Amino acid sequence: MLQMDRLRILEAFRPVIAGRADLGAGCLAALHEQLLRAIGVYRVPTGPTGSSPG
Questions:
Q1: What gap in Å lies between CA 36 and CA 32, rounded to an integer?
Q2: Three-state DSSP class for 35?
Q3: Are the C-beta atoms of 44 and 2 separated by less than 8 Å?
Q4: How many Å separate Cα 34 from the centre of its chain?
Q5: Is the pTM of this model over 0.70?
Q6: pLDDT tens digits, residue range 37-50?
Q7: What is the 8-class DSSP label of residue 3?
Q8: How far apart are CA 33 and CA 30, in angstroms?
């Protein structure tokens, strides 16, 4: 399930990345790195209502 959530996040950001095609390769690589790093620390909510606390 966690893997599917991460894939959904990547899909959600696809338009953002595609919209930044005007950036150079280095900037796009940095954007990808930041996105992948954020997804790497993403945790699926485990509260009783399925929403994250706070």
A1: 6
A2: helix
A3: yes
A4: 9
A5: no
A6: 877 776 666 666 65
A7: H
A8: 5
> How far, in Å, CA of 22 to CA of 20, rounded?
5
Distance of alpha carbon 52 from alpha carbon 54, whole angstroms:
7
Tokens at residue 45, please?
A: 């909510």
Three-state DSSP at 25 gives helix
Measured at the CA of 27, the angle between CA 21 and CA 31, to 5 degrees, comes to 85
Identify which of 31, 50, 53 has the alpha carbon closest to the alpha carbon of residue 10: 31
> What is the per-residue pLDDT across 11-29, written as a single tens digit (0 to 9) for each?
888 888 788 778 888 888 8
> What ranges do the domains of the chain cover?
2-40
In sequence order, which residues have a C-beta less than 8 Å from that of residue 17 and are 6 or more positions away? 28, 31, 32, 35
